[in-house]
């Protein structure tokens, strides 16, 4: 099995440890990883800001990087995958070569937990993480890709890990991309609610499968010097006792 | 009167924590009841109902040319009078004319978002007519001199203590903050108005084309009082409210009650076909366009008109729950309001609202008629920023230039990598360990709430070294 690593711009620039761990887990499961050099940003921040025509250039670059590759394309982000899978086809008129390429490439693009559970059909990746852990369901993975159980099935199979339920698990953390910059006060209020429920859960670690939410939640916990640590799912799955 | 630009950010900063707490308490209760009601129906059946509701509304919306004349014919046949109002001005004029013909001095109203939309109360009051809202929530909001802060629960931003204080100030009654007592007081006051009113005004939840029947659902019975006691009944109904038939109504009622309040059915479902021995002597139906036919031209955004005003999207929206209804600046609130307002009021007035969402998608999942609210939010963001065939862009062209620079830089691999390297240099003076605790504007909008993570950008180097 081959996987093309879709780093995502937030993943690549802020969360390289999680990316390295994603590679480690994939290779542990016998997946051959490749990394298309030409990849940059999928364009979602511009699209969601309303610059939908201008997003085409970024989509073309992404398709140039990934369009001619083989196998699945795997990303540590549900949001970027949701975007590539559902919006790229809308950016190019039906019947064009780009539309067909977008459609074919989108179909083999997966989020990390989705790839492990639904493609590789693996839930126990041989990880060990003897801590109390809670899980925040990121919106686009959850509602865009329908990932409700996949990350939790992976977590439950981790040796020693105690999965604690998070109240309002499916409530947005307030990141929302440009939303956090346009309406910072509202974003902050939502983030503080999320951080409060995480702290109240009694967990030592909150697991997030999304670089955007991770920036927001980890930052929020850092701001109040919380003992709770925010980690990407890949970091947990790469852990061994 | 033109509405000035709605400054959502400024509005959110004026909201009191008290209002937010009251709002969240109500929305939580409504959602819990909704979840219970859906559990009884069963998830599969609920999804089937949602699809059916969506299909019924979309079919009706795309066949208004067929169903609206049918409504007109049936209502007229039964002895009612149908009026067509192109916009709010025409709608107000029609109602004022009917009121003048009958020398109306006192009007009782049941809850209606359409009359809020056309600001009917002010026009009536300016004409010297006393208007009484009779839905308890609307009555409270009217007493307080406010506007509804939620589509189905207009006064949900007020606590029972707030309402007791309001009654003391406005009605001169000293009552404990007890819902039952407060309700009795309002009931007593309203009873006098019902009996003395010479006109009743209502909106309408649905209009059934095959029989020309107006459907009004309420939980207080005030809708029936308003439409049965006064000698004249005027209903103001948006043209999007029409559905083909009674079979469709069965679906819509199931969806509306469960989604809005978690009830199996609302306490009163009034089915009004004019004529017969009972009820008012005259029935007038005002069919209101006011921008709706323009909305229909947009194939993506027109699904907005399928809304049945249940309020579930507001209840679940994390943004609404942190800003309350008034922040939306008009009567179009929550996620659905954020897509209605830019279409009805224009992007110049309401262009902020499509951005008042984290795009979490909860509204789309909860909508009983499957309106793709997140998609429409994105569609309208595009309209605001780049413009489309329906409106020109309203943001500064400088932003477009910035986006051009940004997309070019991010879309060119060497520039993208150079940018990351520059950011690593730039961050040095701000860096504290793994974090950048404070950053200059505009990035301080982020760091006012939490630190920014430091740029690492070392994955590719690691990858190559392996």
List keywords for this structure.
heterodimer, A: 241 residues, alpha/beta, Rossmann fold, 2 domains, 4-stranded parallel β-sheet, 8 strands, B: 466 residues, 3 domains, 4-stranded mixed β-sheet, 23 helices, 12 strands, globular
- Strand segment tally of chain A: 8
Number of helices of chain B: 23
Structure classification of chain A: alpha/beta
Q: How many helices of chain A?
A: 14
Shape of chain B: globular
Overall description:
The complex is a heterodimer of chains A (241) and B (466). Chain A has 241 residues and is an alpha/beta fold. Helices cover 50% and strands 12% of the residues of chain A. Chain A contains 14 helices and 8 strands. Chain A has a 4-stranded parallel sheet with strand order 2-1-3-4, sandwiched between helices. Chain A has a 4-stranded parallel sheet with strand order 6-5-7-8, with helices on both faces. In chain A, helix 13 (211-223) links the parallel strand 7 and strand 8. Chain B is an alpha/beta fold and 466 residues long. Chain B folds into 3 domains: 30-290, Rossmann fold (3-Layer(aba) Sandwich); 305-386, no CATH class; 397-465, no CATH class. Chain B has a 6-stranded parallel sheet, sandwiched between helices. At the A-B interface, helix 1, helix 2, helix 3, helix 4 and helix 9 of A face helix 1, helix 18, helix 19, helix 20 and helix 21 of B.
Topology at a glance:
The complex is a heterodimer of chains A (241) and B (466).
Chain A lengths: L1 E4 L3 H6 L1 H13 L3 E3 L9 H5 L6 H12 L5 E4 L2 H9 L1 H4 L5 H11 L1 E3 H8 L12 E4 L3 H6 L5 H7 L5 E3 L14 H4 L1 H18 L3 E4 L2 H13 L5 E4 H5 L4
Parallel strand pairs in A: 1-2, 1-3, 3-4, 5-6, 5-7, 7-8
Helix pairs in contact in A: 5-7, 8-10, 12-13
Chain B lengths: L7 H5 L4 H25 L1 H19 L2 H14 L3 E5 L2 H14 L4 E4 L3 H5 L2 H7 L3 E4 L2 H8 L16 H12 L7 H18 L2 E4 L3 E3 L4 E6 L3 H7 L3 E7 L3 E2 L2 H16 L6 E5 L9 E7 L3 H5 L15 H5 L3 H4 L10 H11 L2 H4 L11 H5 L6 H13 L11 H15 L1 H14 L8 E2 L7 H4 L4 E2 L5 H7 L1
Parallel strand pairs in B: 1-10, 2-3, 2-4, 4-7, 5-8, 7-10
Antiparallel strand pairs in B: 5-6, 6-9, 11-12
Helix pairs in contact in B: 2-12, 3-12, 16-19, 20-21
